[in-house]
UniProtKB/TrEMBL annotation, chain A:
The keyword Protein biosynthesis does not apply. Its main location: membrane. This is ABC transporter permease subunit. GO terms for cellular component: plasma membrane. The keyword Membrane applies. GO terms for biological process: transmembrane transport. Gene3D superfamilies: MetI-like (1.10.3720.10). Keywords: Cell membrane, Membrane, Transmembrane, Transmembrane helix, Transport. It comes from Roseospira navarrensis. The lineage of its organism: Bacteria, Pseudomonadati, Pseudomonadota, Alphaproteobacteria, Rhodospirillales.
UniProtKB/TrEMBL annotation, chain B:
InterPro entries: AAA+_ATPase, ABC_SmlMolc_Importer, ABC_transporter-like_ATP-bd, ABC_transporter-like_CS, P-loop_NTPase. Residues 4-241 form the ABC transporter domain. It comes from the Bacteria. Gene3D superfamilies: P-loop containing nucleotide triphosphate hydrolases. Signal peptide: none annotated. The keyword Amino-acid biosynthesis does not apply. PROSITE patterns: ABC_TRANSPORTER_1, ABC_TRANSPORTER_2. Pfam families: ABC_tran. This is ATP-binding cassette domain-containing protein. SMART domains: AAA. Keywords: ATP-binding, Nucleotide-binding, Transport. It comes from Roseospira navarrensis. GO terms for molecular function: ATP binding; ATP hydrolysis activity.
Length: 275, 269
């Protein structure tokens, strides 16, 4: 009998093992829901699967009686446009500042300490300031995402740029490259796939700040909706909404991973994590 | 054909003297091997030739002109590792030097101009025997092929001086012999002056027209900081040495085929 560290599941076993935690979680929910509902048919805490399906249908397919909109789509569109704007702005900042700090000693000397302090400010603690400065509209929500995500992206990109072997930068100079050309031909193309990794890591935080901002001041959005429904203990809608947010987040992560593998075939071969 | 003159060069880091009083002249079209124990400053010396670092005292002149204060295309470089760009194919790696020169703003060419550059780069790859690997990324190449690529990449700029920092140190002996022959042919045909740092004395003597050894002459612990390494041996090698006979064969071949700037027989990959 080989040691446990050397035993590997076969293909079928891997599928079963991967599905097992999901099945257990759903099963536990079904049992809990059944017990509570058989004690009190009006229990709202753990609605049955049919109730969840009804709740989802009410928000995702049937138009709202008051406005005539299909609320799930309105909320999704509102949230995703905020998320996209926040991530886009953060990415741009991350690239510009990160490459500057990672490559140019003058920028590093001036920005590195400032960045280290900036990234320690808890973003939610400045949310009131953002609401005061940018108002309660879209801008303050986008800015919260930027505040929460951009410092991480800037520092991560700066680190990745710093990790590029010095030989590469020197070699580029012997090939006649200017500073700008070193950025466009040596640094930037090698930063793209690393940027995708960094954005993937920061998406979780971006969702957190998005939902926090929407919960506090908003009239639409996925975070607004679940916090609104909380008042009515409408678990039959909140749970599908959470599942929907999870699905969206998972899809973005998956898409970015595949974009990286497809657009930068050299990156996988380069041996990530090499010092 | 480039003469290099090194005058009273010292290098120290925060009072720690690494090199002291290095002076020598290098005739045009020399192949200078720099040898010495680890930490003797031979790589530091090479970096000064590259202008990656500046001498603390003294100066280095090329053709009577002081060196520029930063790395320039007149001096090509091949490092032991990381010389080639992982995100570019072999062909793009070689074309890079030409693209940077012809497209100052983007460093990138398009259409017919790009095709012209790629054609030139393909000839450069051919010269180092890498034509079949033109569309591969460096991670798909063996160590020996990566170093051939690094050489082709440096040579596309037609540097007057080529600097090699233990370029073949990580290669297997068989591959090393092939790439040595290639290096000699390229050196002979391009008329470059070559400086090579090496750990391998056989390699240093086989390739070099001159072997210069750096070492510390004072080794007592309390003297270590105040005294650096200097030249302990400077051995000109007789061009008539039988080991070098093959170079003359290359010369004869080149004489018959003067129109081609780089005409060499490749020795497999």
């Amino acid at each position: 009998m080989p040691r446990f560290v050397n035993r590997r599941p076969g293909r079928a076993a891997r599928v079963i093992l991967a599905a097992l935690p999901f099945a257990l979680a759903i099963g536990a929910y079904a049992i809990g829901s059944h017990i509570r509902l058989s004690e009190n048919p009006n229990d709202k805490l753990l609605p049955s699967f049919t109730a969840l399906a009804d709740g989802f249908t009410r928000f995702a397919i049937e138009p709202d009686r008051r406005t005539g909109d299909i609320l799930l789509w309105v909320d999704t569109l509102a949230s995703l446009s905020r998320l996209a704007a926040g991530i886009a702005l953060s990415t741009l900042l991350g690239l510009v500042v990160g490459i500057g700090v990672g490559l140019l000693p003058y920028v590093r000397a001036s920005m590195a300490g400032f960045l280290a302090v900036l990234s320690m400010i808890p973003p939610l603690s400045v949310l009131p300031i953002l609401f005061i400065v940018f108002g309660l509209g879209e801008l303050s929500k986008v800015m919260l995402i930027v505040f929460g995500v951009a410092p991480f992206l800037m520092r991560d990109i700066a680190l990745r740029v710093g990790e590029l072997p010095a030989e590469q930068i020197v070699k580029a100079q012997t090939l006649g490259a200017s500073t700008w050309q070193i950025i466009t031909r040596v640094v930037l193309p090698q930063v793209w796939p690393r940027l995708i990794d960094a954005v993937r890591l920061s998406l979780g935080a971006a969702w957190l700040f998005l939902i926090a901002a929407e919960a506090i001041a908003s009239e639409s959005g996925l975070g607004y909706r679940i916090f609104l429904l909380r008042r009515y203990l409408a678990m039959d809608v909140i749970l599908p909404y959470v599942a929907w947010i999870t699905l969206l987040a998972f899809t973005f992560d998956w898409a970015l991973r595949h974009l990286q593998a497809r657009a930068f075939p050299w990156f996988a071969g380069e041996g990530r994590g090499r010092s | 054909m480039t003469a290099v003159s090194i005058r009273n060069v010292w290098k120290d880091y925060d009072g720690q003297v690494v090199l002291e009083n290095i002076s020598f002249d290098v005739a045009p079209h020399s192949f200078v091997s720099l040898v010495g124990p680890s930490g003797c400053g031979k790589s530091t010396f090479l970096r000064m030739l590259l202008s990656q670092e500046a001498p603390s005292r003294g100066e280095i002149r090329v053709e009577g002109e002081p060196l520029a204060s930063e790395p320039m295309p007149d001096r090509g470089m091949v490092f032991q590792k990381y010389s080639v760009y992982p995100h570019l194919t072999a062909l793009e790696n070689v074309a890079l030097g030409l693209e940077l020169e012809r497209s100052p703003l983007l460093g990138r060419l398009f259409g017919a101009r790009r095709r012209a550059v790629l054609e030139e780069a393909a000839a450069g790859l051919e010269a180092v025997g890498l034509a079949p690997a033109r569309d591969k990324y460096p991670s798909q190449l063996s160590g020996g092929m990566q170093q051939r690529l690094a050489i082709a990449q440096a040579l596309i700029k037609k540097p007057r001086i080529l600097l090699l920092d233990e370029p073949f140190g990580a290669l297997d002996p068989g591959i090393r012999a092939d790439i040595h022959d290639l290096m000699l042919d390229l050196w002979w045909n391009t008329k470059m002056t070559v400086f090579m740092v090496s750990h391998d004395l056989r390699e240093a003597f086989y390739l070099g027209t001159r072997v210069i050894a750096f070492d510390r002459t004072r080794t007592r612990p309390e003297e270590q900081a105040a005294y650096g390494a200097t030249i302990t041996f400077d051995i000109p090698l007789d061009p008539a040495d039988p080991i070098k006979a093959r170079i003359r064969a290359a010369e004869d071949a080149a004489a018959k085929d003067l129109d081609l700037p780089v005409s060499i027989q490749t020795n497999g990959i």
